[in-house]
Structures are given as C-alpha cells and as structure tokens.
Design goal:
Layout: H1 3-18, H2 41-53, E1 57-61, H3 64-78, E2 83-84, H4 88-96, H5 108-111, E3 114-117, E4 121-123, E5 128-132, E6 147-153, E7 157-158, H6 161-172, E8 181-184, E9 189-190, E10 198-199, E11 206-212
Parallel strand pairs: 1-11, 2-3, 3-6, 4-7, 6-11
Antiparallel strand pairs: 4-5, 5-8, 9-10
Length: about 220
C-alpha cells in the first residue's frame, strides 16, 4: 500500500471516529414488563388459566365443605392411601372434615403417595406456587411425595413473582426470611435424556391445587 493510500485509509478512520453515534434511550426498569391483569376475580381466573396451562390440576372450592368433598373424591379417584399432612392448622381442618391422613413421618420414605401443604402465594403471571420451609411441612413434603397437593386461598393470589416475594418480606421481615423459598411451576419435568419428556424425575409427578374462596360475601 502506498503512502497516499495509507493516508487515505487513516483519514477515513479518523473521520469515522469523530462522528457521534446516537445512543439508544435508557430503558425504564421501573416499567412492568407485562401489562398487569385486572385485580379481584379476574386475577384469580388469570392464575387458574396459567396454572392449568403449565400442567397443574385445579379445583375451585366455594367453602370448606366443598373442599372436603373434592379432596375426598380426588383421594378415591387416585387411590391415595397415604396422604401426609404435617401442618397443625391443616390437620385440624382435615379432622373437622373426617378426611383420613398421615400426620407424622411413619413410613414416609416408603409410602409417600401424596403430601398436602399450604403455600405462601400464588403467582397469576406464571401459574406458579410459592412455597417456603417456614411452614410445618418443612422442605420435604412439597418435593418428595409423588403428588403435591396444596390448599390455598383466593386472597393469596398475586400478579407477579415480585409481589409474592414482597409478601414474604412483609410476613417474616427482610432479615428473617425462610431458609428455603421455591417457585413450583407445574409438575417436575425433564427432557435431558434423549429429549424424552419425563415427569417426576426431580420432584412430584403431579401438582394439585385446591383454591378456597375466602373473599368476603357481597352485601346488598
């Protein structure tokens, strides 16, 4: 390359570097990524649709008696002989409904057909269930049994994951959060081996939610 050609190339490079490249606008990280669903009943419907879409089994319970009926029918349909329940309030509730359950860890490893737990929140955006180790169910009852059954209330439905985490902070305090928090989105699934979908490889094969309506009755 001649000196003239080299100077020409260098001049073009210098001219290019002098040009100011317009920068994109700074994104507003405070703006929600998705539009928020409407509050109230519409949010519950949004959660139910998302939960079923990711593979969950959903039951809406209008009252505690309705919950007893649906849980009893589900146990009969799935032939669940060993339903483990460890949370005191859940035990009291099932006793009132004459639902048979296993209240301690006897033969848990060998016969954990299903576990019934509560949860911290329900995320409408993703159909996820937020659970923690702070309940009497601990870490194992939502993970080890073949079926994870959950009793939740309509008042626990939130829009996004961030809303659920804020509920945890309000409930336990920012310095005393549970040692384990987990978002469960549908049954456990993996396709690591030959791209074949397998359910229950790393957790419950099915997730079943009984959503109890605890909204105040409308007054006329």
């Amino acid at each position: 390359m001649s000196d003239t050609s080299r100077e020409l190339v260098l001049r073009r490079i210098r001219e290019s570097l002098r040009q100011v490249t317009p920068q994109p606008e700074r994104p507003d990280f405070a703006t929600p990524l998705h539009p928020r669903p409407a509050p109230g009943n519409d949010l519950v419907v949004a959660f139910a649709e998302s939960f079923v879409r990711v593979g969950g089994v959903f039951f809406f319970c209008e009252s505690e008696e309705h919950f007893y009926d649906q849980l009893f029918a589900y146990k009969q349909e799935k032939n669940l002989e060993h339903l483990y329940v460890w949370e005191p309030e859940l035990k009291k509730l099932l006793h009132a409904g004459n639902i048979v359950f296993q209240g301690d860890e006897t033969d848990f490893v060998e016969h954990a057909d299903a576990g019934l737990t509560t949860c911290e929140a329900l995320v409408a955006r993703t159909g996820s269930v937020l659970v923690s180790a702070a309940t009497g169910s601990g870490r194992r009852l939502s993970i080890y049994p073949d079926q994870h059954l959950i009793l939740a209330r309509t008042s626990q439905v939130v829009t996004d994951i961030g809303d659920g985490l804020r509920l945890l902070q309000q409930k336990y305090g920012p310095d005393k959060l549970p040692s384990m928090m987990s978002l469960t989105t549908g049954p456990s699934r993996t396709a690591d081996i030959e791209k074949t979908l397998v359910l229950g490889a790393h957790g419950p094969r099915s997730i079943v939610l009984f959503l109890l309506d605890d909204a105040p009755a409308a007054t006329t």
